[in-house]
Design a protein that fits this description.
A: 511 residues; alpha+beta; ten-stranded mixed beta sheet; 18 strands; 22% strand; B: 335 residues
């Protein structure tokens, strides 16, 4: 028997061919004329107007172009539209389209495609999210192949901002009509700097340079986007060289990865706002409790712990440098004020006010831990919050069913910085998205939305700023921090950081 | 019972099980708090009227049984509905994901069978006999218990860290290297690369398959090892083994040439049962390895509240497990 254990077993195991030694030589060979990107999520569809998904925007921007673009500091710059002029009454927008632009199939981009993208396909019944952002459009006139005039049912001062925002891409009318929606989804055609050459859902996206691109030719000819949903797996992938750049890694990993010889890791503050969505009723019906809850939150500490002090503590739901931001206005962190407000309503640490709070876990960096920290801060002043973890999709379901708890941690994206798109969405009582339904403040928001034709842009912004401030001072909105984005890349791979969080391969190069 | 009757009985049982699973799946998703019509099928600035329109259009305003009947009718005719989040037919999404997962599961099962076979023989050889070699037996027992105790996702993390990050020996994201073109024939990538004669792509796909399949296979192997060891102990009490020894055959030949053949049969139903655990475990493993199969589809659907995909994928999972369990548990083992 002893003989078997020594000799026979070697034979059995050898026959079994234990596959540990399967292969050597990792797939770390870098492609100097390309790059591999580790991205946390797939596109919902290759129709770029189908769904508003901020994380998909950089991928769409490789294949498609927007009428207007944003520079790294969110200023509007020409894209497919080279010049634009909004009428004084806000009822029309005239645009000059770039000449000589061709789609990936070689067909020219004209005003007919513009009209199709922002009016005709919506009227044709395509279920696209842009049907909402462009619902005011009643006509698009196309006096020439390079000129178009958008006409609105009511004033639309934010139209230029929307032309550079989510979903606003130009898609080819003739091709889309010829192949249909499913055909377009299977083989999309845009005017962007890259064309799609292979796509496997939930796995990888392979793109190659669009040779006839109208703009600067990208330095990297081939881009492979690997969809890696798990944050730890993305860290491992970039650390082992299996991808060259990745985003949305845990904040705590940034310092460690940045210390590695081959890698560079960064925390970038972006235009998303981490805030608490607030109800006007239930445990938050009492304004003393709402305001106490806000005063009790130490945003500086949250920024230090969860963003390495990169995320700016906020008092309004807008980031510094954007139109909705209020310079000089601060909602103070003061536990003593919180205790005093709670005492007025008969609450204390011994007899706490009881509310519920919801948070996602892993939807944005540090969300769950941040929620737990807030609950702990509240406990010290006399607010006892029962914390519930919800999936991101459940957030929408509960929100639209008006069943969110008193407070919900959320990261709100408004890359345009326009307060009408920000506060006008967050606080509009008629939208299911807003859990704040009280009409005292709500009517003021609705009045501003209705009066969006304010010819004086300065006055329009000032009015929104005033309403936003009132919302914060009455506890209808609790902004916390500017959100941060984590980027880890090989040191030799350069990229251009954008304030709105875009990471665009067309700006990358090996150095 | 003849073969036809046995087969018919198996099909009936599997059908009834599948039906019950579909009822449970459907009911569980509908009784969860939240409004299915309010899932993110509309943008943030959708109005209450638009939510109601979605409710009517999707049939969420009907009674639960009526809704279930309509869904089941669609499934029976091959229509699993349309993904709310992706806007594509669920059947098309499943057709892309199922081959990837089945391929991974088959490779994992092969690894599990090889590990189970070799490990079972090792356990048998190291077993305590009349007080001898108790130390070795204890060590081997602890070894299999350890293998059993560590879940597949931890093996996955361990393999990624050791073979992927530390040694940089094997890839652990996706199914192919970035510079390798993907042949599309059947969706079974190993097979497709061979069909088109692309050896480089085959090797790339095989290398990408090693770590996820190993993470799944390692967990399935220990029960197989234990069953094989017990079967070998049993077989060694048989007269024909004594006869073989008396004829002077070497112990290696007795084990590999005579005992192993009969002792290996009980492994098959165990592998069938373990296949269910393996497919279930592939959910997390696929996510960790960024592997585009049913796991990735399911996790994405759950995150997005995509009910038609969750229902369709859940049902296909059940069908897969039932089919393989029935095949390995009954058809291949004549009892």
């Amino acid at each position: 028997m002893a003989d078997i254990s020594r000799r026979g077993l070697v034979g059995v195991l050898a026959a079994a061919g234990v596959p540990i030694t399967a292969a050597a030589g990792a797939a770390a060979a870098r492609l100097r004329d390309g790059a591999r990107i580790g991205w946390p999520s797939d596109v919902p569809s290759w129709d770029p107007q189908f769904r508003f998904v901020p994380d998909a925007q950089p991928i769409y921007k490789m294949v498609f172009d927007q009428p207007l673009d944003q520079d790294a500091r969110q200023a509007l710059v020409p894209g497919l539209v080279t010049a634009w002029e909004m009428a004084a009454d806000g009822l029309s927008l005239e645009v000059e389209l770039r000449d000589g632009v061709v789609f990936h199939d070689g067909s020219p981009m004209t005003s007919a495609d513009f009209r199709w993208s922002f009016l005709e396909r919506i009227r044709a019944g395509h279920k696209v999210d842009t049907a909402h952002s462009w619902r005011k459009v009643v006509a698009i006139e196309t006096p020439s192949a390079t000129r178009a005039v958008m006409r609105f049912a009511s004033p639309a001062p934010t139209a230029p901002a929307w032309l550079a925002f989510l979903g606003s891409f130009v898609v080819p009318k003739a091709y889309m009509e010829r192949v249909g929606l499913d055909g377009f989804g299977a083989k999309p055609v845009g005017t962007g700097p890259y064309r799609l050459v292979d796509y496997q859902a939930n796995a990888r996206i392979v793109l190659e340079c669009h040779e006839a691109y109208w703009g600067p030719r990208p330095s990297l000819r081939r881009i492979t986007v690997e969809i890696i949903r798990d944050g730890a797996a993305r860290v491992a992938a970039v650390q082992s060289g299996q991808v060259d750049l990745t985003v949305a890694v845990p904040v705590r990993e940034v310092q460690r990865l940045d210390g590695m010889a081959a890698l560079s890791a960064e925390l970038n503050a972006i235009t998303r706002v981490t805030l608490l969505q607030v109800r006007h009723d239930a445990g938050f019906a009492d304004p003393n409790i709402r305001l106490a809850a806000h005063h009790a939150i130490d945003k500086v500490a949250l920024s230090r712990v969860f963003t390495n002090e990169v995320g700016v503590p906020l008092s309004v739901p807008a980031t510094p440098g954007t139109a909705g931001f209020l310079d000089g206005f601060t909602f103070p962190h003061d536990p003593n004020i919180a205790i005093e407000l709670l005492a007025r309503s008969g609450h204390s640490v011994a007899a706490p006010a009881r509310i519920r709070m919801a948070t996602t876990r892993g939807q944005f960096p540090g969300d769950y831990d941040m929620a737990r920290a807030i609950v702990a801060m509240w406990r010290t002043v006399g607010i006892e919050a029962a914390l519930e973890v919800i999936e991101f999709a459940r957030y929408f379901a509960l929100n639209r069913g008006n069943r969110l708890p008193e407070a919900t941690l959320y990261s709100f994206d408004n890359a345009t910085g326009d307060p009408e798109i920000g506060a006008g969405t967050l606080l509009n009582p008629l939208l299911p998205f807003s859990p704040w339904k009280d009409m005292a403040l709500g009517q003021k928001v609705l009045d501003l939305v209705d009066a969006a034709g304010e010819p004086d842009e300065v006055a329009r912004i000032a009015a929104w700023r005033a309403v936003t401030r009132e919302a914060v001072e009455t506890g209808a909105c609790m902004p916390l921090l500017q959100s941060v984005q984590t980027v880890v890349r090989r040191k030799a791979l350069s990229y251009r950081p954008y304030g709105n969080g875009w990471v665009l391969p067309q700006t990358m190069d090996w150095i | 019972m003849n073969l036809v009757a046995m087969f018919a009985r198996r099909v009936l049982v599997a059908g009834a099980t599948l039906l019950m699973a579909s009822v449970l799946l459907f009911a569980a998703l509908r009784v969860l708090p939240g409004d299915p019509a309010a899932m993110p099928v509309l943008p943030a600035d959708a109005t209450a009227e638009e939510v109601e329109e979605v409710r009517r259009a999707r049939g969420f305003d009907r009674s639960l049984p009526a809704e279930y009947a309509a869904w089941l009718g669609g499934v029976l005719s091959g229509d699993f509905g349309r993904s709310e989040h992706l806007g594509r037919p669920v059947a098309a999404l499943l057709a892309e994901a199922v081959p990837a997962t089945v391929e991974l599961a088959l490779v994992a099962m092969a690894i599990a069978a090889v590990l189970g076979l070799s490990g079972g023989v090792l356990l048998f050889v190291l077993r305590a006999e009349g007080g001898r070699a108790e130390g070795r037996a204890a060590i081997s027992e602890i070894g299999t218990t350890l293998l059993l105790s560590v879940p597949e996702f931890l093996w996955a993390v361990l393999f990624i860290l050791v073979f992927g990050v530390a040694l940089e020996a094997l890839p652990f994201t996706g199914r192919l290297d970035a510079d390798v073109a993907r042949p599309v024939v059947s969706g079974f990538l190993l097979l497709d690369t061979l069909l088109v004669g692309d050896v480089a792509a085959f090797l790339s796909a095989a290398r990408h398959m090693v770590l996820p399949a190993l993470a799944l296979g390692v967990v399935v192997a220990p029960p197989v090892m234990r069953v094989l060891r017990a079967a070998l102990v049993d077989v060694y009490r048989s007269d024909y083994i004594h006869q073989a020894r008396l004829r002077g055959l070497s112990e290696t030949r007795v084990l590999l040439g005579y005992a192993l053949h009969n002792a290996a049969l009980p492994m098959l139903p165990v592998l069938g049962v373990q296949f269910g655990f393996l497919v279930g475990g592939s959910l997390l493993v696929e996510v960790l390895f960024a592997y585009p199969g049913m796991g990735a589809l399911m996790v994405g659907a759950v995150r997005n509240g995509d009910l038609p995909v969750i229902q369709g994928a859940g049902l296909v999972y059940c069908a897969l497990v039932l089919t393989v369990g029935s095949l390995l548990g009954a058809r291949l083992v004549p009892r």
